[in-house]
Amino acid sequence: MALTKQERRFRIKKRIRKIVSGTAERPRLSVFRSNKQIYAQLVNDLSGATLLSVSSLDKEIVAVAGNKSEKAALVGKALAEKALAAGVAEVVFDRNGYLYHGRVKQLADAAREGGLKF
């Protein structure tokens, strides 16, 4: 019997999370993508704390017109700005079981352009 999309993504996510872990010096950049929105957060896995988060529902991003890929790029830039202001320059990227393509790639590229290293 074939796996559903959710089961497949969960298996990939577990496989990634065995390797990828965030610390206070180098937090994990976790991406969640729904059908309409995209969310990104920096997580310290040692303490289980979210350091900061940005989503396409934030006021400054909602105010800008554009398609979902353009919004993902804005989320990446906003995340990079907030991370650098908080003193975080290096992160570990967690694509959360999604393919590194489309909106996830747009967010990652924009975060790199904003100054994050991963």
TrEMBL record:
Q: Which GO terms label this protein's molecular function in UniProt? A: 5S rRNA binding; structural constituent of ribosome
Supply the alphabetized keyword list. Answer: Ribonucleoprotein, Ribosomal protein, RNA-binding, rRNA-binding
Has keyword Metal-binding? no
* Gene3D superfamilies, alphabetized: 3.30.420.100
List the Pfam families.
Answer: Ribosomal_L18p (PF00861)
Keyword RNA-binding: yes or no? Answer: yes
Q: Which GO terms describe its cellular component?
A: cytosolic large ribosomal subunit
Give the multimer and partner information: Part of the 50S ribosomal subunit; part of the 5S rRNA/L5/L18/L25 subcomplex. Contacts the 5S and 23S rRNAs.
Functionally, this protein is described as follows: This is one of the proteins that bind and probably mediate the attachment of the 5S RNA into the large ribosomal subunit, where it forms part of the central protuberance.
Q: What is this protein called?
A: Large ribosomal subunit protein uL18
